[in-house]
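Q: Here's a chain of 486 amino acids. Please give me its 3D structure as tokens.
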Amino acid sequence: MTDVAPQEMSADSGSDQVLCSMSVAQLRHAYVTGGLSPVAVTRAHLNRITRADPAYTTFVTVDADGAMASARQSETRIRTGQEVGALEGIPLSVKDLINVEGLRMTAGSRRPASVSAVDAEAVASWRRAGAVILGTNTLHEYAFGGTSVNEHTGTPRNPWDASRICGGSSGGSAAAVAAGFAVGAMGTETGNSIRRPAAFCGIVGFKPTFGRVSRAGVVPLASSLDHVGVLARSVEDAAMLMDTISTFSGHDLGSRPPRLPGVRVDAGRSSGLTLGIPSSMLVGLDPLIERAFNRAVKHLESAGISVRSVDLPIASVWTAVVSSVTMHAEGAVAHEQLVTGDPEEYGNDVLARLLSGLAISKSEYARAQAMRELIRNEVLSAMSGPTGVDAFIAPAVPDVAPFIQPGAFVPGDAPWHVGHSAFHLQRLPSLLGLPAGSGPVGWTPAGLPLPIQVFGRPWEDSKVLWMLGQSMDVIPSAERRTIASV
């Protein structure tokens, strides 16, 4: 379901493929030199959404009037020589779990939507940087699931194969970026909800260090796990989108003052760097995923980066269980009043997870947090000292995107379902609040993305993005893809 407001744009569905595939840096340069205008670029994105999104269901609400008004303001600032923001005139979208002033917010649920009175703090930061907010994206109900299959607001479809899922819970955000409906998008991650959709949709998904971005104005799921992050088509774009929202907030108890300068793609050095492979978690992989990962590793080694296996015996056994206990218990607390008083408001899958969370005892939760600290100590120790690795690299998902089907789930999506060892790896960065990103390093013969992920030390977000970019460079220039043809 998509609400499209009246708009100032032509009905021409001509050549939006080029305009809608441009990067943040390319658009900024074109704006400043007069080659393009924010109004024309925003209109192209709105045209593309109107023409193609009904087949992909990536938007819940499209704010065409508001987007065009913002684009005209950006155009005036640029034309009159005023100070312009880092994201001036850049069309972006926001997961429909995050408040956008004046737009209804559904959280992907069947409950009557409320209109947001103010922007979430992260959205307000994007606006101050000059961004054009196109609207809000579809998601898994209350962000509590890994498929984004949603009977209430619609199921987003993968732009590379519309019969497949986008992943969840930020599925609509990832699909919108991959389809060229938005230059970038804002999502949330509690378990793997940014990196997994990005992996399935062939784009970059980045989850920052816990506490770097304010969650004020975001519907909570699990307070010790929730992150706000970004989805983009390159590490450079991801860095620019992240940098504008990295700030301390007094309205978020999890917020931390950034300990390092803003997020950027470091021009860093290759020599002397070491990446670790958590080999015990890399089992049950699709052969195409495994081959693409091995090619990326060889590419990094040829660039002078050392890569070696690292044993994480505690994390490889306990991560998924600890993450699930924490997420289900904290999710049940966040939803306790509604789930106990009006359970029919939830879809069956989300209700099952919340009810399982209500059954977790205080002692079980406490033991999970104690084990969480053991996992944290093990992983951080592996990245410490003269023999420690600088970061970890691994496949982002064990398989390509599954087909859409009723009740579809990915490993770990059903209550207490752990799946194979790769699921521990997917949950590890969010459980520990580590900066992590995923991106494509190849494509299957059928045109589906083959992704990897990199995660590193707290507050080394820029280094993680740089190493992710180095890994993605394994794809020859002639084979790189920007947006799907929709």
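Q: Can you summarize the key feature?
A: The two ends are 18 Å apart (CA to CA).
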